[in-house]
Amino acid sequence: MPLLEIRNLTKIYPHTEVRAVDNVSLSIHSGETLGLVGESGSGKSTLGRLILRLIEPTAGSILFDGRDLLAASRTEMRSLRRDMQIIFQDPFASLDPRFTVEQIIAEPLVIHGTTSDAPVPARVAELLRAVGLDESALRRYPHEFSGGQRQRIGIARALALRPKFIVCDEPVSALDVSVGAQIVNLLAQLQRDFGLTYLFISHSMPVVRYLSTRIAVMYRGQIVEVGSTEQITESPQHPYTKSLLEATPELAS
User: Fold this and answer.
1) Axis crossing angle, helix 101-112 with helix 147-159, rounded to the nearest 10
2) What phi, psi does 225 have (nearest 5°)?
3) Chain centroid offset of residue 19 CA
């Protein structure tokens, strides 16, 4: 059984009648990375937020670990959110500038209560080490860090509750190429270490190819092609997929 299964998911914004997400069906299995690729405005981030119920769909169904998320009450969703987290695109905007790093990473543990044997400060220090930062970061504030370091802090916060599933929403697009590569390698390592499942959203086919088990191509709110990474990058079927690959010469077949 897939860890996540969405069926006919649709989001129409009222007044504009724009179908940001249009009748999308996808499944993601435990331990895999599904790369969701498409240009800006294709509906990728909206789909990621719909899956986590950060915004509500107009129609469709979302099953997570066998549970119907759209039938879940607020209390049930609060419990389910332990298993479902998000890493945002902009690591500065997503971190509260008034909080120290320790407070930022500890916040999910405080809100949800921790099931860990370790006390909160020890758990926070452990999470910092897992993302390649040391304990000297604990008392500092987000503005004191580089973009790549801030993204590591955001990743540590996402890991705090030991989730099963993480939506990575363009997590390297605000970073320069070398720093972004370090973050992608970190995400791959954390997936192995913590047994994570990712929906990895990006407009960059090379990044998606590197990290993903399978790739879904999104265009104007719809999934136009889904396949293994090898199939999508070596023998794409849809004209839009082909155009994405041709825009990255090293991937063009």
Assistant:
1) 20
2) -160, 140
3) 22
